[in-house]
């Protein structure tokens, strides 16, 4: 692998050295480099240093300029304003850096981070015996993208799908089926959809009876005890629910173009045996205390009505365990068995308070520390066009499969309208890639903690900030490369670059920096924004700089080179977000 230092980092190093030479007592002062509209980069850390040293900012800036080693990297440095530095890099530096990236294949010269750790990503958490709905979309899409980015930087990620497969609802469902044995007709369908629809229907019926009949409620609670104690007949029916649900889950995730590994599906039931030990440890350490028969953890800063502390219930007064015990036991497993250094939870923002208390409890117990951290990636709600939580016209929650099918259908219309030499089978294949990509990108291009409107018309539009716009930019480049025939992409560092070529080249060079920043901040929307700007800069380049009709053979090769590395960067970046880039559209 050919690791490449970005132009930004190279310029930063030169300026830092010049600052140290100009003001030795300042040590390794940071020039605070950023992209600029007036030049390639702007350094604005001199003002703060001048204030600290009680020096004239412009005079200090002038001293720094005189000590900058330019060479083949820096073309020009000028002092502007009260003491800013505007830096322009050479055309040769841009092309040479991109040439090394181009030669590095899929990694594009992006290095692996030092001292990489192990991150367990808890995401895509459907519930057994329930159909997946639009509310499950964001956890799956965001979690998958985060794993893609973290893996690319060198972090080892382990997925955990903490599915809802335990607790009161299963006692309720199993008891109902024991009392109504003909309700769950056998269904041997390939994708589990019919079986899941039957389970979902029976679940709703059992819930209605549970809420209306106190005697049934007591029998259902007794069935929970039988389940937790390992009653053979109860466990067999429970296992049937889990197996049928998994078949269905896999079919939905396959539509989402996501790989879900069976060994990473570790539901609430997996922690059942460890929960008594978790409770014992917390009580022995004094982290949890008995209150009205229950084992709880109190927090001074978390208050409810009448300014009373809100407790985290580890064990109920009747001896049962809830979500807190399951989540704390999962933390123990992930820290001590999986050796994780980071725990990342992609969970609805409405559960933020719960996880705040769980993480603080784990910290008090010593399971989390400065070396082992936990983060809740709370995400917002998917809204309809009316700005309210997305529902069907009848007010029901939208099934995720229906949503994805409609996206693919809508994408097929767009692809068919543009398709020139695609067969119907190819149109359907592209429609799946475009439609699912559109749904994912609409989610990922929004900051995770914000709500966003689900608007399929906008999502599959060829204009604006959509995945379709990016996919068509990639397909356009592939078309140009095919038309080039025997003429291959070749970098020519000796050529002068047009403004549009420079802008595109500088942006391409910052791909690695962007991925690292987005991964470190758990911010896939920053990578999405980078890719949209890349496609936009390529469009400008394509409009202003003829590729195959350039004046000289060397210029044709160099522009084909810029096309090719743009395509590779789009392909790699979109891939990290879990989105396909079709070769033809």
UniProtKB/TrEMBL annotation:
EC number(s) on file: 6.1.1.19
Top-rank lineage group of the source organism: Bacteria
SMART domains with a match to the protein in the record: Arg_tRNA_synt_N, DALR_1
UniProt keyword Nuclease present: no
Locations listed in the record: Cytoplasm
GO terms for MF: ligase activity
One Pfam family per UniProt: tRNA-synt_1d
Residue ranges of every copy of the DALR anticodon binding domain listed in the record: 470-585
Residue stretches spanning the membrane: none
Catalytic activity, as annotated: tRNA(Arg) + L-arginine + ATP = L-arginyl-tRNA(Arg) + AMP + diphosphate
InterPro entries assigned to the protein according to its UniProt record, in alphabetical order: aa-tRNA-synth_I_CS (IPR001412), Arg-tRNA-ligase (IPR001278), Arg-tRNA-synth_N (IPR005148), Arg-tRNA-synth_N_sf (IPR036695), ArgRS_core (IPR035684), DALR_anticod-bd (IPR008909), Rossmann-like_a/b/a_fold (IPR014729), tRNAsynth_Ia_anticodon-bd (IPR009080)
Domain (Arginyl tRNA synthetase N-terminal): residue spans on this chain: 9-89
Keywords carried by this UniProt record: Aminoacyl-tRNA synthetase, ATP-binding, Cytoplasm, Ligase, Nucleotide-binding, Protein biosynthesis
Motif ('HIGH' region): 126-136
Enzyme class per UniProt: ligase
Keyword Cytoplasm: yes
Assembly description: Monomer.
Family, per entry: Belongs to the class-I aminoacyl-tRNA synthetase family.
Identification of the protein by name: Arginine--tRNA ligase
Species whose genome carries this gene: Streptomyces djakartensis
């Amino acid at each position: 692998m050919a690791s490449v230092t970005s132009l930004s980092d190279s310029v930063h190093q030169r300026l830092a050295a010049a600052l140290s030479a100009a003001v030795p007592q300042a040590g390794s002062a940071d020039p605070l480099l950023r992209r600029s509209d007036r030049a390639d980069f702007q350094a604005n850390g001199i003002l703060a240093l001048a204030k600290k040293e009680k020096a004239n900012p412009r005079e200090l800036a002038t001293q720094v300029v005189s000590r900058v080693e330019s060479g083949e990297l820096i073309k020009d440095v000028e002092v502007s304003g009260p003491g800013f530095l505007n830096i322009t890099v050479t055309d040769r530096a841009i092309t040479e850096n991109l040439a090394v990236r181009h030669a590095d294949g899929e990694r594009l010269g992006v290095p692996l981070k030092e001292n990489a750790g192990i991150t367990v990503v808890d995401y895509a958490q459907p519930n057994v015996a329930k159909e997946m709905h639009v509310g499950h979309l964001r956890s799956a899409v965001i979690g998958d993208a985060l794993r893609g980015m973290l893996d690319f930087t060198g972090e080892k990620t382990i997925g955990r799908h903490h599915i809802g497969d335990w607790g009161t609802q299963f006692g309720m469902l199993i008891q109902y089926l024991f009392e109504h044995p003909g309700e769950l007709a056998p269904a041997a369908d390939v994708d589990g959809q019919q079986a899941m629809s039957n389970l979902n229907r029976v679940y709703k019926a059992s819930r209605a009876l549970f809420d209306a009949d106190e005697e049934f409620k007591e029998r259902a609670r007794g069935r929970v005890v039988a389940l937790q104690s390992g009653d053979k007949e109860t466990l067999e029916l429970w296992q049937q629910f889990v197996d049928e649900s998994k078949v269905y889950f896999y079919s939905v995730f396959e539509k989402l173009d996501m790989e879900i590994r069976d060994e990473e599906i570790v539901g609430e039931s997996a922690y059942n045996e460890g929960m008594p030990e978790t409770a014992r440890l917390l009580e022995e350490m004094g982290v949890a205390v008995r209150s009205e028969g229950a084992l709880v953890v109190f927090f001074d800063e978390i208050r409810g009505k009448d300014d009373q502390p809100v407790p985290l219930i580890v064990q109920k007064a009747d001896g049962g365990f809830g979500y807190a015990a399951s989540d704390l036991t999962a933390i123990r497993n992930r820290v001590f068995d999986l050796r994780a250094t980071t725990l990342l939870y992609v969970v609805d923002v409405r559960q933020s308070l719960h996880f705040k208390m769980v993480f603080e409890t784990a910290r008090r117990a010593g399971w989390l520390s400065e070396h082992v951290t936990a983060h809740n990636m709370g995400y917002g709600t998917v809204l309809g066009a009316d700005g309210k939580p997305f529902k069907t016209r009848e007010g029901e929650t939208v099934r995720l499969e229906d949503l994805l099918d409609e996206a693919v259908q809508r994408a097929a219309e767009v692809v068919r309208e543009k398709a020139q030499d695609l067969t119907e089978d190819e149109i359907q294949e592209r429609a799946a890639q475009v439609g699912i990509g559109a749904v994912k990108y609409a989610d990922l291009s929004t900051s995770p903690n914000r709500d966003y409107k689900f608007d399929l018309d906008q999502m599959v539009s060829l204009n604006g900030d959509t995945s379709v716009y990016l996919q068509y930019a990639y397909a356009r480049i592939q078309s140009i490369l095919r038309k080039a025939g025997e003429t291959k992409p070749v970098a020519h560092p000796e050529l002068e670059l047009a403004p549009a070529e420079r802008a595109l080249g500088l942006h391409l060079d910052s791909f690695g920096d962007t991925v690292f920043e987005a991964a470190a901040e758990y911010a896939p929307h920053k990578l999405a924004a980078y890719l949209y700007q890349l496609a936009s800069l390529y469009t400008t380049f394509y409009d202003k700089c003829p590729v195959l009709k350039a004046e000289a053979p060397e210029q044709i090769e160099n522009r084909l080179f810029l096309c090719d590395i743009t395509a590779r960067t789009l392909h790699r970046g979109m891939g990290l977000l879990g989105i396909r880039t079709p070769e033809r559209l």
